[in-house]
Amino acid sequence: MEQNFFFVDGLKADKNSKKLMRQHVMKGKNAGKTFHRPSRTSQVIQYRPMERIARPIGSQFCSFPFPVPLTKTASKSIDDFFRLTINVIYPPSQLGFDIEKDMRKWLEIMFQGKSGYEASLVLIQALNETYLGGGYSSPNSLSCLSQTLELLKKRLGSKEALSDQTLSIIMSLINQEQLVDHYSAAEAHMAGMKRIVDLRGGLENMENPAVVAKICRTDILFTMQQSRYPTFYRDHMPQLRNLLTSKGFILQRTSEAYSIQQGRLDSVLKESLFDTMGICRLLNEHLEEKPLDIIEFQEALISICYRLLYFRTLKESRSRHDIQSAYHIGLMMFMVSVHWYNYQSRLAKPGHIADRVKEVGGMLDEHEDEFALWVLVLGGISALGKDDRAWIFSRIRDKASVLGVNTWDKARKCLVKFPWINVVHDEPGRKLWDQVFLLDL
After folding, report:
1. What share of the chain is helix, strand, coil (3-state, %, to 5)?
2. I need a labelling partner for 367 at 20 to 30 A (CA). Which of 18, 161, 268, 396 fits?
3. Is 257 a residue whose pLDDT tops 60?
4. Residue 111 is assigned to a structural domain of this protein
5. What is the model's pLDDT at position 165?
6. For residue 178, what are the contacts with CB-CB under 8 A and spacing of at least 6?
7. Judgement on whether residues 117 and 221 belong to the same structural domain of the protein
């Protein structure tokens, strides 16, 4: 190998000479070596899209005057609980209600006084364990539940026995038992709740509307699960109409799809249908003006639900198999889709609702194809279990074909003739439609 020698004056080297010297030295040092450099594309920094971190509820209520200083564990339990309940017990966020204001009211009820604080905190930990931890039967959950029952027993023997705080604990216990299908235990707590309400003079004599609404919601859901008549009754639609009139709004109680069949509906069903349509139209046309607050909205749903539940039980509607039953079940399904917007998979029993959807199809004739499509879509977006996908998808295709509907826009024109809240139902409705017609099963 021929070697070349270069003589340089290192003392008087200029910038260019120093550069040549460095290059020459490195060539000799690395002779015969192969370098495997990564491709330039792989060296480009990969950025993953960042998800927005949800602000914990505790930071929003850091100024709340708890009766005792919060520990880190207690603060986390309360944060977890309220983050869960945002998506569980409150109406859809799309409706724009001030949910934080309502949650603060519940903080005031649940954590009033040291004894109430202890009972509510232990119950919250039990509920969190059921939702997020090892489930109802885990040691932590059972321990917290046992402590809750012991503290509740003490409260029932004290001057706080009839308080809103005691009612809030009992209602949470009912939800806990419903969640794991312990209906006999839930029924025992329901009886206790009724006893307290009766001793306070009934729902109409209770001062806190948020507590009254929660009592009614608890009663309605338990009634639907058990297919029986409700424990309570409340219908404030006349008061709501007057309230809306004073605000400059009119509840337009008509149905765009008023058919011969609807003309034969029982007056209770007809009034319920028209009031439901009125609420939907009010929200669809004036949502930005906030015609109703969260309590007033719940009062409307509660009023209509109680009418429907006292008209017939779901079990009776199944057995009679007539047009009245079809509309009864359809309206109840609409209430589930709104009142328990994110709750269906835990408490409203998807399979139970899917069975009702299947039964409605046999109660209708060819004049009610649009109504049948509405029921099918509501069933699909409210509580569609995996086992029901093939059947309900097939039925939606059949009804769409009969109606000559081949796009979502055309389907929506049929659906909005019946109870339909745009900001609540449009997105899941379109998603279901795309699954039915654009995606494989």
Report:
1. 65, 0, 35
2. 268
3. no
4. yes
5. 93
6. 186, 221, 222, 225, 347
7. yes
